[in-house]
């Protein structure tokens, strides 16, 4: 059924005194242009796009329960000639259009149960299903293939977006392509132009699948590449009746690294939700403290899964692999980890966020794992076979290689980014924000020297919330940190202006900013499109 988007009210509905950061937003019918205060390098030209939840409230006194249930809003900053042109538009997903008609979600979201769909006929509601209807509210990430830009979430759907107009385009379904009901929100493209992703099947046996999408050829579109994509390998879940939640994975020059974690989907609860109807995805998930993490290492060239059983001693929850690379027959993987899932579950309760009820007990930490590429038969029982200078260990215990990390930061940093030229290569630095946490990194954006465990902060006000930074590389490529960071800053006080901030990525000193009368929404992830790519 084709749905037209109902007209939006001029102003969004919001509970009284709702903090700016967690308010329902409105679209910009006319772009706002602002001068940059300061001086940027002449090569900083392009488009900074972001996506995240933007509509939480409906006219009939209904508010979604979880921050990540807000309907996707795309923001765009065109940066040229000392000015920034700001636009924002809702992603016209089926879930969004149906919610506007019903004035509440009619497709299950992560933390909000669905309501009856008034657009469905009586007979279509009676059609049996073995899988709950999944949402295409792709409000998590943006990625590019062959010059096309896509919005994605963690279900089977992704949708193309025109970066010029922000108009929503075609919807794609990994379930139809590959039989996968869930997929990572962070596909990775390597130097050769191949794009990889990891997904899972809840129906045809509980398994993970690694997908390989070829680069687009001459006169080809990304849609042509999708048709030629293949399943590189399948990996059975380690736990009967359970399959891991996934958000990102790692890649080196020769390997893909997928980490199974103790936050798992219970297949029985998924089937039960078909009968009970309307249960949110969060209710399918369980935090199993008796389970640890398992690292699956896959050869990119062949799809072969290395036989070493690499596990952690203590389980952790994670969202973002920072980067990974190979060094002297080892895989080095940097990651942000949490001691539990509270950051995604309890902390993302929208009512709590609007009360600014945020604690610091479950903050993420930056860690480095070092995995030797060894044959366990050649390793003595109880010996640490990490051959690099590192505080990380990898000890043989029976038929397993048990890994422990080296801690590289204090707790509190998330939404990491790197100079994309160093993806899958040895990196010294990454950048992240501490805005969603209490503690040392609060209200700051940070540069981390992973090996030296040193940090440099930019922080100005306790009222500022800084989003995920993006690294803009100097075309001269003199060093890894030779570039400019761009991030959006929300001033959570009333009657203040939000702004786009530019920092020297080497020194973390401010280069400039551009203020806007229109509010800048919170976002999850973004993408930098150099002028030549727009």
What would you say this structure looks like, in words?
With 534 residues, the chain is mainly beta. It has one domain (20-533): YVTN repeat-like/Quinoprotein amine dehydrogenase (Methylamine Dehydrogenase, Chain H, 7 Propeller), CATH 2.130.10. Helix content is 7%, strand content 39%. The protein is built from 6 helices and 39 strands. Strands 2, 34, 35, 36, 37 and 38 form a 6-stranded antiparallel sheet that branches. Strands 18-19-22-23-28-27 form a 6-stranded mixed sheet, with no helix packed on it. Strand 10 and strand 11 form a beta hairpin. The chain is globular. Residues 5-17 and 122-128 have low confidence and may be disordered.
What is the topological layout?
Elements: E1 32-35, E2 37-38, E3 46-55, E4 57-58, E5 62-63, E6 71-80, E7 83-90, H1 94-102, H2 122-126, E8 141-145, E9 148-152, E10 157-161, E11 168-173, H3 174-178, E12 182-183, E13 188-189, E14 195-201, E15 207-213, H4 222-227, E16 230-236, E17 242-244, E18 250-251, E19 255-260, E20 263-266, H5 267-276, E21 285-287, E22 294-299, E23 309-312, E24 317-327, E25 330-338, H6 350-354, E26 365-372, E27 393-397, E28 400-404, E29 406-407, E30 414-417, E31 429-433, E32 444-449, E33 454-459, E34 464-466, E35 470-473, E36 483-491, E37 498-504, E38 510-516, E39 525-530
Parallel strand pairs: 23-28
Antiparallel strand pairs: 1-7, 2-38, 3-6, 3-39, 4-5, 6-7, 8-9, 9-10, 10-11, 12-14, 13-14, 14-15, 15-16, 17-20, 18-19, 19-22, 20-21, 22-23, 24-25, 25-26, 26-29, 27-28, 30-31, 31-32, 32-33, 34-36, 35-36, 36-37, 37-38
InterPro entries: Carotenoid_Oase
Family: Belongs to the carotenoid oxygenase family.
GO biological process, one term: carotene catabolic process
